[in-house]
Amino acid sequence: GNSVTQMEGPVTLSEEAFLTINCTYTATGYPSLFWYVQYPGEGLQLLLKATKADDKGSNKGFEATYRKETTSFHLEKGSVQVSDSAVYFCALSDNGSNTGKLIFGQGTTLQVKP
Amino acid sequence: DAGVIQSPRHEVTEMGQEVTLRCKPISGHNSLFWYRQTMMRGLELLIYFNNNVPIDDSGMPEDRFSAKMPNASFSTLKIQPSEPRDSAVYFCASSTRTSGGAANIQYFGAGTRLSVL
């Protein structure tokens, strides 16, 4: 079945460091891919998405490129801030099933220190 | 739009009591999802509805859990009787199900933090 695997956390960085959180997936068909972010005490919110191969999603300085050849959707940011400290979830949807269901990875905690 | 609204935000109860969590999805959304989040198990999908009909409840842990969606603007998740291991944050999310494979963005509520003593 479809699945998402993320790198284990926590990831601890200093402010202004470069961030990469790896995400790989297994899926049949042509899923859409997402990154969600969860700030402390809040629900998940969409950070960015990509709907087809080679698409690049971007938002708030974060980017991720849909790589079908490597089945990956790694999240990157050139310079992190303390306010980016949160849990990041990679997810995919199965466009073929049309159920609206998302498959989430286990989440990666990011801690940014000043 | 007010977003997905969940109530209560916090619930503390004693083992054996009935607990009811409530969710109001975004108006116009036709899919609704209930999740549970714990440190040990992460984010788990419990059940989801399309057009008020339960589609997949395979994630519901056991018969003590039940969910209903009597109309497009309201859903409940009930635990009866509750146990300490049910302590978790429960999230509700809604989305618009579209034909043709459009990206299905889910919008999450702020969650209900449940503590069963």
Report on the architecture of this protein:
- The complex is a heterodimer of chains A (114) and B (117).
- Chain A has 114 residues and is mostly beta strands.
- Chain A is 0% helix and 50% strand.
- Chain A is built from no helices and twelve strands.
- Chain A has strands at 3-6, 11-14, 19-21, 23-26, 32-38, 44-50, 56-59, 62-65, 75-77, 86-93, 102-104, 108-113.
- The radius of gyration of chain A is 14 Å and the shape is globular.
- The model of chain B has no long low-confidence stretch (mean pLDDT 92).
- In chain B, strand 7 (65-71) and strand 8 form a beta hairpin.
- Chain B has no helices and eleven strands.
- Chain B is an all-beta fold and 117 residues long.
- The chains are: A mainly beta (114), B mainly beta (117).
- The A-B interface holds A 30, 32, 34, 42-46, 49, 51, 89, 93, 95-96, 98-102, 104, 106-107 and B 4, 31, 33, 42-43, 45, 48, 50, 55-56, 91, 93, 95-99, 101-111.
How much is the average pLDDT of chain B?
92
Unreliable spans of chain B:
none
Please state the overall shape of chain A, judged from the principal axes of the Cα atoms: globular
Number of helices of chain B: 0
Overall mean pLDDT of chain A stands at: 92
- How is the main sheet of chain B built? 7 strands, mixed
Largest sheet of chain A: 6 strands, mixed
Give the strand content of chain A.
over 45%
* Ends distance of chain A: 41 Å
Proportion in helices of chain A: under 10%
Shape of chain B: globular
Rg for CA atoms of chain B: 14 Å
Q: Please count the beta strands of chain A (DSSP E, at least 2 residues each).
A: 12
* Quaternary organisation of the protein chains: heterodimer
Radius of gyration of chain A: 14 Å
Helix content of chain B: under 10%
Query: How far apart are the termini of chain B?
Result: 36 Å
Number of helices of chain A: 0
| Count of strand segments of chain B | 11
Q: What class would the helix/strand composition of chain B place it in?
A: mainly beta
What string, H for helix and E for strand, traces the elements of chain A in order? EEEEEEEEEEEE
